[in-house]
Specification:
The structure is a single chain. The protein is of the alpha/beta class. The chain folds into 2 domains: 173 residues, Alpha-Beta Complex (Quinone Oxidoreductase, Chain A, domain 1), CATH 3.90.180.10; 151 residues, Rossmann fold (3-Layer(aba) Sandwich). 30% of the residues lie in helices and 25% in strands. The strands form 4 sheets. Strands 3, 4, 5, 8, 9, 16 and 17 form a 7-stranded mixed beta sheet that branches. A 6-stranded parallel beta sheet has the order 12-11-10-13-14-15, sandwiched between helices. It is globular and about 65 Å long.
Length: 351
């Protein structure tokens, strides 16, 4: 098959062997696969997971790895021991995890579990879901990105006495905004330096967008949550201060620490950015403020299913996130273009 192969820190499109489904696996043909910021983090920081003993990701510059974990695919064949409950030719997707004879692997981050930047790859039959949808595969494949922010927003259980602040307006942030809107939470505040990203945040459900070059996000949050000082004094005294829930969706060192230093006392922080090179945190400040920090963890399975159904049914419109599409020969350039914050939220590979 043809595939865009990561090796030695660079991506080259060439012919490699077709993957062969093992027990419980499906062979599928890639129809569309989104380029995620975590693909770039993975290829740029292969050393970041050297202390990860799970084996779910392979951090080896010499290995041949086909990335791509946000996919819509078509069932082609079955491995041994499968139920064959999904007919050949059916459009599907799944949580990007593959069960193998040697353990669980992240799809698109191991030689054993190639991803959607190739013509064919493997899925775990037990995790595979049918795409019940008339929408194009380029839209359906965005569901996995939606599931991450969707799960974070759902787990946060933001109350009517809290005002959410979303830092960053990439795909994960936008999905958190969309789910917060669906949950009836508000006002939703979103922060990004890039004007086009702020516009997309509004399209996905944000009420207020903030350019941090013009005003501190935390001052802007206070202005919205507390209102003008004088009129609010009596209300705040009687009802107590509104709480802040921050969603950190940037993944650049220094951002989470800046939230710790800038946010209100008692803030709840959901960090889903995760810079691969690590982060230095002022933990004493966090302690003094009584902050509660929840780190990522990926989407829960039922949240992935909810997000997939919402995208497939069209009840959640993700078209504001969709940029251009490229073929396999354009993957290397598209990965480079995805580093530009002024570019589209999602470039989609159509093998």
């Amino acid at each position: 098959m043809r595939a865009a192969v990561l090796q030695g820190g660079t991506v080259e499109t060439r012919v490699i062997g077709d993957p062969v489904p093992e027990r419980g696996q499906l062979l599928v043909r890639s129809l569309a696969c989104g380029i995620c910021a975590s693909d770039i983090h993975f290829m740029d920081h292969l050393e970041a997971g050297m202390d990860d003993e799970s084996g779910m990701s392979t951090y080896d510059r010499d290995a041949e790895i086909v990335m791509g974990h946000e996919y819509c695919a078509e069932v082609v064949d079955y491995g041994p021991g499968t139920e064959r409950r999904i007919p050949v030719g059916t459009r599907v997707s799944s949580l990007p995890v593959l069960a193998t004879a040697t353990g669980r692997r992240i799809i698109g981050q191991n030689p054993e579990s190639p991803g959607g930047f190739g013509e064919y790859f493997l899925l775990d039959e037990s995790l595979t879901r049918v795409a019940v949808s008339e929408l194009p595969s380029e839209i359906v494949c965005i569901a996995d990105a939606i599931s991450v922010g969707w799960s974070a927003a759902s787990r946060a259980q933001v109350t009517a006495k809290e005002v959410p602040l979303v830092i960053g307006c990439g795909a994960i942030a936008l999905s958190a905004i969309a789910q917060l809107r669906r949950l009836g939470v508000g006002p939703i505040m979103a922060v990004d330096f890039v004007a086009s990203r702020r516009e997309t945040a509004l399209a996905m459900g944000a009420d207020v967008v903030i350019d941090p070059a013009e005003i501190s996000p935390y001052q802007a949050w206070r202005d919205v949550a507390y209102g003008p000082p004088e009129p609010m004094k009596e209300m705040l005294t009687a009802a107590g201060l509104p709480g802040c829930v921050v969603f950190e969706c940037v993944g650049i060192p220094g951002v989470l620490d800046s939230i710790i230093r800038g946010c209100e006392r008692g803030t709840r922080i959901f960090s889903v950015g995760g810079p691969p090179e690590g982060e230095h945190l002022h933990t004493l400040t966090a302690k003094r403020k009584g902050l509660n920090i929840q780190f990522g963890g990926g989407p829960l399975m039922h949240h992935w299913d909810e997000a997939f159904e919402a995208v497939c049914s069209g009840s959640l419109d993700v078209t504001p996130m969709l940029g251009r599409t490229v073929g396999l020969d354009g993957v290397a350039d598209a990965l480079a273009a995805s580093r530009d914050a002024n570019g589209p939220v999602r470039i989609v590979v159509v093998p």
